[in-house]
Amino acid sequence: xxxxxxxIAILIVLVAVTVVIVTRQDxxxxxxxxxxxxxxxxxxxxxxxKIFIADRKGVQVTLTRKNNIWMVDGxxxxxxxxxxxxxxxxxxxxxxSPVPKAAIENVKKNIITEGIKVEIYQGEDQPAKVYYVxxxxxxxxxxxxxxxxxxxxxxxxxxxxxxxxYGYLTTRFFTEPSxxxxxxxxxxxxxxIKGIKVNYYETPEQSFIxxxxxxxxxxxxxxxxxxxxxxxxxxxxxxxxxxxNIYYExxxxxxxPEKIDSVIHATPYFEIEVNDFLGSSNKIVAYHMPNYRQxxxxxxxxxxxxVDRMYAYLNDELFVFIQFATFDQITLPKSYFLSTEQ
Length: 342
Description:
Number of helices: 7
Radius of gyration: 28 Å
Shape: elongated
Strand content: 25-35%
């Protein structure tokens, strides 16, 4: 019995010694490789002023911060959630392990031919960090990357990760500018709104116009612009307040131009246009989406159209998907606002 205890104690010591040796070897591997650069993390993300991302196909995007607002190619506000995720990635990214020596050349070749270049600026003309982002590891729990410092690329790539996050990082560095755009459709406080036009093509009698007259909202018939009386002003004010946070779901980047052209030349489902006191306007035109998913009602009959999503054309330039769950709240019939039927 005593000999067994001694044997167990010896095994525990051997295991502990092995762990220490392996750990020291792994820790030293990164530092001992000549020309290896592994300082990927950005400690002060608040100082980041510009991010440039480009793929090997020539698609690229530049995100710039001005007055604490991120812009896409200097033209459109960027999606706050995507930018926040990217900044968090820069701050938390760590080396998971070096790439095995036998795989280094293949990994580097893959990154060179298919990788994504990321330049991070902190108010200087030259980037503070330059990443080259490759594909995920076989288990999808790491991402092959290497770092460039002062114009010199690291001699070896590393497997990078975010501690506590299970997955790979490549998808965070997308290059399509439209995918970085803030998904806002309408973002107005009521005082900014000069007028709202809501046109229902299938039920035109329920279409309406709302006008802001000295910060008092008035409901009008869409057809002739005549003022409607006996209006529930509380409902009207509450409705206008909903235009502070209306977003589309995503941009359609897969449909071919001929399909998009076919949709936008079909009869719309509804159209909403908002004008503000600065002379600007935002318009969205929605179209039914076919029931591709073959969704059935409670009687096992197929719905004619998709019951969750629609196509939409934003400001005559952006073809997007929108959700009924979002737009149902602002596609109310004219009769909803009337105290008595007129």
